[in-house]
From TrEMBL:
<dbReference type="Pfam" id="PF07883">
    <property type="entry name" value="Cupin_2"/>
</dbReference>
<dbReference type="InterPro" id="IPR013096">
    <property type="entry name" value="Cupin_2"/>
</dbReference>
<protein>
    <recommendedName>
        <fullName>Cupin type-2 domain-containing protein</fullName>
    </recommendedName>
</protein>
<feature type="domain" description="Cupin type-2">
    <location>
        <begin position="60"/>
        <end position="108"/>
    </location>
</feature>
<dbReference type="InterPro" id="IPR014710">
    <property type="entry name" value="RmlC-like_jellyroll"/>
</dbReference>
<dbReference type="InterPro" id="IPR011051">
    <property type="entry name" value="RmlC_Cupin_sf"/>
</dbReference>
Amino acid sequence: MSDTRSIDAPNEVRPFKDHGHMDVVTLGDFTLGRGVFEPGWRWSEDVKPIAGTDSCMVHHTGFCLSGQMTVRFDDGRELSVGPGDVMDIDPGHDAWTTSDEPCVLLDTGVRGYAKPA
């Protein structure tokens, strides 16, 4: 079945503990999130209490629209994500906003992201 829905009218909005939210649109088997990670956002502070895991166990794939974020994997590797970057981020990481503006990401790996365990 063909369908459309505006990300500006999401099926659900998942608030983080502080510093932002995830707008989620689901069409059939496809889920897309628009994450708004405000300055000061850090996964280990803003999502960990919701997820209940030691690190983010979601596989993220998507695109950065604005702002910047650093991702630190459990093995110590780091990468930066910024405007125009296409990302493929494996599970097992922490992340935080590093820009003075919100980091806004489109992410296809959010079916269970920022939902209570």
